[in-house]
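Chapter summary example.
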Amino acid sequence: MSVIAEPHSAEAGQLHRTIDWRGAFWVASGVPALVLFSIGGISGTVGIPAYTIWIVSVCFGLIQACTYAEIAGLFPSKSGGASVYGATAWLRYSKFIAPLSVWCNWLAWTPVLSLGCSIAAAYILNALAPIPAFTDASPEVVAWLADPANAGKAAADAIAALTAAGTPAIREWTLYSGSLGPVSFSFNSVFVIGAVLMLITFAIQHRGILGTANVQKYIGLAVIIPMLIVGIVPIVTGQINWDNYSPFVPLAEAYVPASGEWNISGWTLVFGGLFIAAWSAYAFETSICFTSEFKNPGRDTVRAILYSGLLCLLLYTLVPFTFQGVLGLEGMLAADIVDGSGVGHAMAQMVGGSGFVTSIMIMLMILALMLAINTAMAGSSRTLYQGSVDGWLPRYLSHVNHHGAPTRAMWTDLIFNLGLLAIACADAASFFFILAVSNCGYIIFNFLNLNSGWIHRIDNGHIHRPWRAPTFLIAIGGMLSFVNAMFMGAGAKVWNPWALWAGFIAAALIIPVFCFRHYIQDGGRFPTHMLDDLGITQEDLKNRKAGMLPYLTLAAGLCVVLLANWIFVI
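The structure predicted for these 570 residues follows.
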């Protein structure tokens, strides 16, 4: 393997060291808001045990974070997150596995932009152009039934007719729509509003990581505090109905409020919940995406991921527990909770509010989504940037502006997500298809990175680590990589029968991308600076101390996915 000397970044310099762990904490403070993306969807597939899915998932995330915190300390000059740090461990064993880690991490994180914008746009549309609500006793319904032209009609007919007539035209407007394989797409009013929100996010990110962290701090406080209130107040005020936590069995069928059993079908639904929950509950690892922007990487890295993880543990435990206790199974299966559009209203009811309080909660929901979107663009764009700097992704992505923001990577995120936004705005099935495919990438990234911990220990054990995780936690992390693989194999089909295979196809797209960069742009040579943090040379890469273990691990992981997919059926 040969190398080529080139600068760390093109044209506009490098990322700026301007934040400490607190800045990274606030940038990552959008992660707790991800619980609102799928809290209804997981309840709809799992049922009453759904709240424990979140607790188990975030505990797994904390254990895994120990591996990520250790390997991040090996690379004080790299940005882009755990995937970049773990990819270097696999480089000795395959040119193609290393970029797969970076690519899958980006595939997992970048759809937060489109999915978050679609939900936020729906909230804005509901506020500006609400659908009128009528009941049997509404004066309009009574008058409609009294009209001789409607003789013999029922109240349901009146409600349907009045709702259709009173629905604002903007809610029905669509420039163009269609289908694309297993999903639909629509350029409708939600798409237009969502696109505007993406541009606002881009403008915030354009100012660099320090400006982004400052904005995130205030939005974060405005979101985290109300989420804590919603998680605590119903418990204190006695709104929790403890009967809503039993019987502790999964659903017999997704989205149908009937208790099932702990059989193959039930476990499949549970694994489907654990599969999707991982996308949110593990995501605080994004707090170490900014290592090369930390003033003191050795100190700040472990603190950033630790405190971000503890915040997620608190909120991912409280919020789902309270929702389940107050709303119950049927309430959690309501259509507006499943698709996310009614979560703000439900939060207002939990704190005893209505009218103005509901409006405030909906506004906070929009802010929460914007917080998550900001977090996603900050992390995913730096993954693209570092992947380019290290020679895995096209060169144009390594550009940064005078604020130290990776603008070309941000534009790539933006354009890619405009396409995903059109799909997410079409219907709930398309929304969850994107989420499931995205999470397949996330599980692949986690599998590779959790095993990179012990590979780094074997191949680079002599290198100083600012923080060294207990060995048993590295081992548990390695075991959890196979548990996650089982979740993917068993659970992806719960969300869409094609999700797993589409996820594999999406992951495989890195092969032509990497070949273009490595063999066409770089002539088959890696940048020399890629290995600077490890203090090794190209010759050292030929020394594979782990032998066949990494290859056997990959084979075993693939077997777990395929066996789980075969065994667990609905």
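To summarize the output: Strands lie at 2-4, 174-180, 183-188, 251-253, 256-259, 525-527.
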